[in-house]
Write a structure and sequence with these properties.
The chain has 110 residues and is of the alpha+beta class. It is built from three helices and three strands. The protein has helices at 8-17, 59-65, 99-106, and strands spanning 23-27, 30-39, 42-51. It starts with 7 loop residues before the first helix and ends with a helix.
């Protein structure tokens, strides 16, 4: 644009580029994840600390975890990727009973 006036899209794009990339650091059995974000006009630094635990899993699960990823997840890190992994839909169940049968069960027979 002329006269040094930039568009709002360029300004938003420039603001997002000013943030440093997220950083992961592993020290022993602790993983430290540092992320930067904008909250209003302030830059916010978020530091998350995770304890790394190793668990014994059944042999079949260990073999399945060793499989190579395929399709859109070929270059992903280990573990599920929310953009390519779909968890089955939540199913709501409603149990329907016949009122007459329920009433018969409640009343003792003479």
């Amino acid at each position: 644009m002329a006269d040094g006036i930039s568009s709002w899209a360029d300004e938003i794009e420039n603001e997002s580029n000013n943030l440093p990339p997220p950083r992961e650091e592993i020290k022993g059995n602790t993983k430290i994840v540092t992320e930067y974000s904008m909250k209003g006009e302030k830059k916010v630094k978020t530091v998350r600390t995770y304890k790394i635990e190793k668990k014994m899993v059944p042999k079949a699960i260990a073999q399945r975890k060793a499989w190579t990823k395929f399709g859109m997840s070929t270059h992903d890190k280990p573990g599920p990727n929310p953009s390519t992994t779909v968890v089955s839909e939540e199913i709501m169940m409603q149990f329907i009973t016949n009122k007459e049968e329920a009433d018969k069960e409640e009343q003792p027979e003479h």
